[in-house]
Design goal:
Length: about 400
């Protein structure tokens, strides 16, 4: 029975309450004036320094540029390895603005994949504008798609005026919004592959590009191999910005920082990422709440093809907590909204909530929801309704017969 329903009903244990709970504001001194650190899986926040304040993103804008381009390419009939030709319009305004480029040239032939790496590794504004033209027909149309993407993520504190991150007073975001944009982008395998690359040689062999982290290691001797990937940015108004992916005891974390002053050195923003990584590694560990296949709930499902479902954890469920906190220190409560579910069940319907408390304070709330809508099975419904209807009919028949005989 359970196996049959598993084909129909998919419960996602990684689908969380989208109201992040603050685990603690970790005690670190950073060069950056704005910072936000969040666990990708649990959505627990570990560092929040003016995360809702408006910032200028500079070239971390290109994270959004890349994912918008990838999604357009993947939904079209072109391949990542199809060849395109760079046009004069792809370079329009870039040299006058002092924009960073991937050193592509007019008439040069490269692939879509080359352009994606050219955007994120050398921060190529030329690759940005080429992708805008190729995917949406123009830079203006591409920027509209960028803002539509932001709106679809529910972000109200961001607005973009170009795909490059060049300064514009109306081109702004927050470090929290950028963490959401990066988190969404990392769900795409192609984006994650590009974002975490250290080097890339384009298909023609003409260009080899280095990532932000590779350059920081080369220039300053920083041990950036502990960081999974990053994209940096700089303009005079923005100062240094950085969006980083790091893994702490099995938990993927996103750190976004902004406005690290140039007076603190060329790689102050990267130094901040390493400071956060080192602090979290030393002071935090993963605490497992439930192991894969642990039973979390048992449900009757009326009106569907399957009557009963045993809810098992599809993967380990864990929290990243301070080293002083262990499993025994936590109070974990699972609350089923109902032991009986009635089809249809919508894909965003919460069926069970987990609350985790420490020292009588709720530190984490986790909602278990459906990934797929469960429709009504009219055959099952007829059967389920048929039994009580038949019973009532039988009682009525008996009563009528007794009345008839008594006459």
């Amino acid at each position: 029975m359970k196996k049959i329903l598993s084909l129909i009903l998919v419960i996602v244990v990684s689908l969380l309450v989208m109201k992040p709970v603050s685990a603690a504001n970790i005690s670190v001194d950073l060069y950056s004036d704005y910072a936000y650190l969040i666990d990708r899986n649990t959505k627990m926040v570990y560092l929040d320094d003016k995360s809702d304040d408006q910032i200028y993103p500079a070239s971390i804008t290109k994270i959004l540029t890349t994912i918008v381009a990838i999604e357009a390419i993947e939904s079209s009939d072109v391949s990542m390895d199809d060849t395109i030709t760079m046009l004069e319009e792809d370079f329009e305004g870039l040299y006058a603005a002092g924009a960073s480029t991937a050193y592509l040239e007019i008439g040069e032939k490269v692939t879509y994949r080359d352009l994606l790496y050219g955007v994120l590794l050398p921060s190529g504004a030329d690759a940005c504008q080429a992708l805008a033209r190729l995917t949406y027909g123009s830079v203006d149309a591409f920027v509209d798609a960028m803002n539509e993407k932001v709106a679809s993520l529910g972000l109200e504190n961001s607005h973009f005026e170009n795909p490059t991150g060049l300064h514009d007073d109306n081109h702004y975001t927050t470090v929290k919004d950028m963490s959401v944009i990066l988190d969404d982008a990392l769900n795409n395998e192609t984006f994650k592959e590009v974002f975490t690359a250290r080097t890339y040689t384009c298909s023609t062999g003409v260009h080899t590009w280095l990532s932000t982290l590779y350059r920081a290691t080369s220039n300053s001797g920083m041990k950036t191999t502990v960081l999974d990937g990053a994209k940096s940015g700089y303009t005079v108004e923005a100062q240094y910005t950085l969006a980083t992916l790091m893994t702490i005891d099995g938990h993927e974390m996103i750190l976004v920082t902004a406005h690290a002053s140039t007076e603190n050195g060329l790689n102050a923003h990267v130094a901040d990422a390493l400071t956060v990584y080192n602090y979290m590694t030393i002071h935090y560990h993963s605490v497992t709440l439930y192991k894969k296949d642990d039973e979390l709930g048992n449900y009757m499902i009326l009106g569907s093809n399957v009557f009963q479902y045993v809810y098992d954890a599809s993967e380990d469920i864990s929290l990243l907590l301070e080293n002083s906190i262990d499993y025994e220190d936590l109070d974990i409560e699972l609350q089923s909204h109902s032991g009986i579910l009635i089809a249809p069940i919508e894909d965003d319907e919460t069926i069970m909530t987990m609350e985790v408390s420490y020292n009588d304070e709720v530190i984490y709330t986790y909602d278990f929801s459906l990934e797929s809508t469960i429709g009504v099975s009219y055959a099952a419904l007829a059967l389920e309704l048929g039994i009580p209807v038949a019973a009532v009919a039988a009682i009525v028949c008996v009563a009528l017969r007794m009345i008839y005989r008594s006459r």
